[in-house]
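Researcher: I'd like a candidate sequence for this fold, 229 residues long. If you have to choose between options at a position, lean toward the conservative one.
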């Protein structure tokens, strides 16, 4: 394992996933354009803007999960074929995913700020500290990617029933993460009911521990992946 190799993997995966992310954002923007022209008869401009912010934040989690699901099949197999060690791949993937997660968190924060400017006069909104929201959003995008990574690895390297079991484990991890989240990030009735409303420091610390445990498990499992030629 060399730092140069890890750096190259980090850059390549960030750029590769970034290109896919641009397409995803274009699709989201196209959907927003449709909403802008259709919804004005049903809602105010502020409500349309809030809809876009909430839909972007929620759909990005699912998007990150999908990216994680294909991490092994799309990237690990290619890198191993080129002689890259599984350990180097793990660290490069972890770093690139963290960068991507916080790139999305920054984008969502900007959209959220724009939403506030548009809707401030239309309705009262509950907002938290921008820094805390940015930090938590990034951690959740990373969490969803890691869940997808675990599920994708299980389906690729083990039997079908183990892959199916990993889906259940993934749902439990997401539920635990939502329960540990602060109330300000619990958007919608389902996640609001899951949140324990923990203090911010406790919430951030707990989710960080959960992320490190997931990374440790993934590091162990990645070493055991039998690449199929």
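Model: Candidate sequence:
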């Amino acid at each position: 394992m060399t730092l140069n190799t890890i750096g190259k993997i980090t850059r390549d995966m960030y750029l590769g996933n970034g290109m896919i992310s641009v397409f995803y954002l274009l699709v989201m923007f196209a959907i927003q354009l449709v909403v802008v022209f259709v919804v004005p008869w049903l809602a105010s401009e502020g409500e349309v803007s809030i809809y876009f912010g909430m839909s972007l934040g929620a759909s990005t989690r699912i998007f990150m999960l999908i990216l994680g699901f294909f991490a092994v099949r799309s990237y690990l197999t290619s890198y191993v074929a080129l002689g890259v060690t599984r350990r180097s791949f793990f660290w490069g993937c972890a770093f690139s995913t963290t960068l991507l997660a916080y790139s999305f968190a920054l984008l969502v924060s900007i959209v959220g700020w724009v939403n506030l400017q548009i809707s401030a006069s239309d309705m009262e909104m509950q907002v938290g500290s921008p820094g805390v929201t940015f930090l938590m959003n990034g951690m959740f995008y990373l969490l969803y990617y890691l869940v997808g990574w675990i599920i994708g690895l299980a389906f690729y390297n083990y039997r079908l029933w183990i892959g199916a079991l990993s889906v259940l484990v993934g749902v439990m991890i997401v539920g635990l993460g939502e329960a540990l989240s602060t109330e300000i990030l619990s958007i919608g009735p389902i996640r609001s009911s899951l949140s324990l409303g923990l203090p911010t420091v406790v919430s951030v610390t707990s989710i960080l521990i959960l992320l490190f445990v997931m990374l440790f498990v993934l590091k162990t499992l990645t070493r055991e992946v039998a690449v199929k030629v």
